[in-house]
Design brief:
The protein is an alpha/beta fold and about 375 residues long. It has twelve helices and twelve strands.
Length: about 375
């Protein structure tokens, strides 16, 4: 029966859900089985999904790998973050369909369950700095988290960011945090590629040895040689890759031993099909996955299945404990992964194991949102 399935519709929903835009994609079939996917880049991705829809209608959704190859290889200007985000959303939805059609969770399509619970790391929130961030970390530890990510001092500004003003204050905060929290908790920081190589090296040198367990995205990732230069200046493990949109972007970082944690994003890299290839490649080089998970429940569900099915996994990012969110999305996603303490339990529902209130989603519209355009005090533009 499932061999005769045909795709009948692909519906992109770039909509505002609660506190942010989300890019959801629904793939429908002629037998009433449907799947949900998600990506970022909202409006641009919706156009790409609509383009792919024109030749995917009538195709067999069970042929996930073949469809991935066709949507990637059949474009003259293949790849890139927008096209890969569209491929990601469609690929995740196809996995949801196939799992439902076969009556198994998606992780069974990826090789089966290797763990029963998915540990997460929590963040102190980008509004908390200094002693307030340390106190927030204490609260997270009391709630069971043993891996905690900080943000740099000065990140909350939507106008000015001076790296040299940030690194000393941030290093001081982290040195104090290690003293306050002890040696057992994993501590990291996300600098969101705001630093240069020299600034990142200065920051690392201001930290006492053993303070940080991972440094996330300290510099921009376009040039692997720049990361290699920074690698020679510090022994702090790097967590990078959330912006990578293919296995090929991961290639130099994995094979040159530049980083220790892959911040792979299933909604950006090319879906579960591509993510599993990166995971296997990473395993061969003893690099652990530490997935990026900044979007909504569909992204979380897909990433839980990935994390469940691979051996080389560290922690999954979770946004849920951040107090600034203040939004219950249950009306939009009545069935979704829920934290049990600091972990996501691995469920056994067919497909992704989520439900989307399509009527509620359809009632929403896209809202314009733009990331902060940061500048230095001299007026020049710097990274967000």
């Amino acid at each position: 029966m499932t061999e005769k399935l045909k795709i009948t519709a692909i519906k992109p929903y770039p909509v505002w859900v609660g506190t942010r835009n989300q890019m959801l994609v629904k793939v429908e079939t002629d037998q009433g089985i449907f799947g949900w996917g998600e990506s970022g880049c909202e409006r641009a991705v919706a156009g790409a999904v609509e383009h792919y829809r024109e030749f995917l209608i009538g195709r067999n959704p069970m042929q996930i790998g073949r469809i991935w190859q066709e949507v990637y290889r059949s474009q003259y200007f293949e790849g890139g973050r927008v096209l890969q985000a569209a491929i990601s959303a469609i690929d995740i939805a196809l996995h949801d369909i196939k799992g439902k059609a076969l009556g198994v969770p998606v992780y069974e399509l990826l090789g089966g369950k290797q763990r029963d619970r998915i540990p997460t790391f929590a963040s102190t929130g980008d509004e908390a700095e200094g002693d307030a961030a340390i106190e927030r970390a204490r609260e997270l530890c009391a709630r069971g988290w043993q891996a905690i990510r900080f943000f740099p001092v000065g990140q909350s500004s939507r106008d000015i960011f001076e790296p040299r003003e940030s690194i000393g204050a941030t290093a001081n905060m982290l040195n104090k945090a290690r003293e306050a929290l002890g040696d057992d908790v994993v501590l990291g920081i996300d600098y969101h590629h705001r630093l240069s190589v020299a600034e990142a090296a200065s920051f690392c040198n201001k930290l006492r040895r053993g303070v940080l367990d991972f440094l996330e995205e300290p510099i921009r990732d376009e040039t692997p040689e720049a990361y290699e230069s920074l690698r020679r200046m510090t022994d702090i493990p790097f967590a990078i890759g959330e912006e990578f949109a293919s296995k090929w972007q991961f290639l130099p970082y994995i094979e040159r031993g530049i980083h220790q944690f892959n911040r792979i994003d299933v909604c950006n890299v090319g879906g579960l099909t591509e993510a599993m290839k990166v995971a296997g490649w990473s395993e061969a080089h003893y690099v652990d996955l530490m997935p990026h998970n900044p979007l909504g429940p569909v992204c979380t569900a897909a990433t839980v299945h990935l994390a469940c099915a691979v051996p080389n996994f560290a922690w999954l990012e979770t946004r849920e404990p951040e107090t600034k969110l203040g939004f219950d999305n249950s009306d939009f996603f009545p069935v979704q992964p829920r934290l049990d303490g600091p972990d996501y339990p691995v469920g056994d529902l067919p497909g992704l194991g989520i439900e989307v209130n399509e009527a509620a989603i359809q009632a929403q519209s896209l809202r314009f949102w733009e990331a902060p355009h940061l500048r230095r005090r001299d007026g020049s533009v710097t990274n967000w």
